[in-house]
Amino acid sequence: MKRIHASAGYALFAGDLAAFLLFTYYGKRAHGLPADAPGILETAAPFLLGWLAAALLLRLYRPNAYERPGRLILITVAAWTVAAPIGLIIRALWLGTPITLMFAAVAYGIMLVFLLGWRIPFGIVHALIRRRTAPR
Q1: Which end of the chain is more exposed for a tag (fewer CB within 10 A), N or C?
Q2: Count of CB atoms within 10 A of residue 96's CB?
Q3: 65: which residues sit within 8 A by CB, 6+ positions away?
Q4: Spans in the chain with pLDDT lower than 50
């Protein structure tokens, strides 16, 4: 059972990373900006740093955070609610630009959809796998 948890935690982290990179890619494309790898990484970095801070604070990748789909949804919303302002502040300091309410609201909402859009199916599949492999 520990191997399932370890690999699930790594898969969860990889999926979250992919969600941030896809969010950044589509944001750049929507605004007509070049979506090359360095630009995507530079744009995603502040939000990833905020997400990592929230992940450490809320222990996002520990098994009890994702064992049940309902808990996974709640902790995802909580983590992004903590991470988004951190990412916005880092971005504002990094770029030397002010935080606009519209950008903050859109970034918060769309990234939350990206995170939940993949984390909910992950949680369901993980719960089914756990149920199938549980001792009877």
Answers
A1: C
A2: 6
A3: 58, 59, 71, 72, 75
A4: 1
